[in-house]
Specification:
The protein has one domain. Helices cover about 80% and strands about 0% of the residues. The protein is built from 10 helices and no strands. The longest helix has 21 residues. The chain is elongated and about 70 Å long. The relative contact order is 0.11.
């Protein structure tokens, strides 16, 4: 685990965001963690990013999901993440991973959420894989790190049309010819 302090910070912030129903903050924390994961290709960081992103989806849809015991849900998830932080602070990486998995299982344990959570976790893995891919990690490596198929990832990446990088835009043939004429003039 390369960025222990960063993960501890992210998890502490995530607990606060969960307690205040701040789904936007949770998504930002997940994106921060994916950036770090892309640098180190650390599977624990990726797990944290996917878990936090999944929690953000539940938080953002809490009213439509009609979770009757919302406060209990928040307490249990926060407790599991707190135990993960404690394990990481003490250098017990296996215990940390176990508590992180427990938080995911807790989300699924709310009976009306089980099918939804499984779908969210799958989509979260694919979403975060696309973010890793955007950071320059190969499609095959990204799929392997997140336990998804290359096909799922390539299908998702192929659907994305937003392109904020001006260096990746294509130029029409006419514009290219005009630029060549200006260059040689």
């Amino acid at each position: 685990m390369q960025e222990k302090e960063h993960i501890i910070y992210v998890l502490k912030e995530a607990i606060q965001a969960i307690r205040t129903d701040n789904a936007s903050k949770l998504q930002q924390l997940s994106d921060q963690t994916i950036h770090s994961a892309s640098v180190y290709q650390d599977t624990d960081s990726i797990s944290v990013a996917v878990t936090i992103y999944s929690i953000s989806k539940v938080v953002s849809r809490k009213d439509s999901l009609k979770i009757g015991r919302w406060n209990s849900f928040v307490d249990k998830i926060s407790s599991a993440l707190g135990l993960a932080i404690d394990a990481l602070e003490k250098g017990r990486v296996e215990s940390f991973s176990s508590h992180l998995e427990k938080s995911v299982k807790l989300m699924s344990s709310f009976s009306n959420l089980k099918p939804y959570i499984q779908d969210v976790l799958r989509k979260a893995a694919i979403n975060k894989a696309s973010k890793l891919y955007e950071h320059g990690i190969s499609l095959a490596q990204t799929a392997k790190l997140l336990g998804i198929t290359r096909w799922e990832l390539s299908e998702y990446v192929g659907q994305k049309t937003v392109n904020n990088n001006p260096y990746k835009t294509t130029i029409s043939g006419k514009k290219r010819a005009e630029m060549a004429l200006e260059f040689f003039a």
